[in-house]
Design goal:
With 190 residues, the chain is mainly beta. It has two helices and eleven strands; from the N terminus they run βββββββββββαα. The radius of gyration is 15 Å and the shape is globular.
Length: 190
């Protein structure tokens, strides 16, 4: 399913979550656009606070790269322990569909963006930044910058000496079912 939504941004990011608490210490900030964690990821925005437009696609396989007018495009591997990975809309009550087409496991997340340089660290209540998040099942592979910018190049240079290998996925954590994660997600909105 393909749909768009204005998503809340706080502190210059929004979350791709799997319904579990996020361990920020596992974040890899290396490429300046997608920051994968041991599960889920952060997407870094241009604005500090406000709303951005996000469109999602959950696919069964890798789509062809269609760069079009997108200004930045980055891919990273993201782990979904529950198979219920979604864009957390923040203060918005609507939801985007899950990004996980085949349940728990590794997914490749491709993020396209335009407008991130429009109002750096500012506030936009009316969305100017546009994001397309596409995910498909794929085993872990290195991050890839498919269309760069000075912002991405600066982030890559700043994190050049840091290790960015495959994260260790905790096996002793109790995992909730995808259905329970979905229900908990709805309870948080009440």
């Amino acid at each position: 399913m393909d749909m768009a939504l204005a998503v809340s941004v706080n502190d210059g990011l929004f979350c791709v979550s799997d319904g579990e608490s996020v361990d920020v210490d596992t974040t890899s900030w290396s490429n300046g656009l997608i920051a994968p964690m041991d599960h889920g990821a952060w997407v870094l925005t241009g604005i500090h606070t406000g709303r951005v437009t996000v469109r999602t696609q959950a696919l069964d396989h890798a789509p062809p790269l269609e760069a079009g007018s997108w200004e930045e495009i980055v891919e990273a591997s993201v782990y979904s322990p529950n198979g219920a990975m979604f864009v957390d809309p923040g203060y918005v009550t609507e939801e985007l569909p899950y990004l996980t087409a085949r349940g728990p496991g590794w997914y490749r997340l491709r993020v396209h963006v335009s407008g991130r340089s429009h109002n750096p660290d500012g506030t936009d209540d009316e969305p100017v930044e546009q994001y397309l998040l596409t995910a498909w099942p794929q085993e872990w592979t290195e991050q890839a910058v498919l269309r760069s910018s000075s912002r991405i190049e600066d982030a890559l240079a700043a994190h050049a000496g840091e290790p960015h290998g495959k994260p260790v996925i905790p096996t002793d954590q109790g995992r909730v079912s995808a259905e329970r994660a979905r229900l908990l997600r709805h309870l948080d909105r009440d």
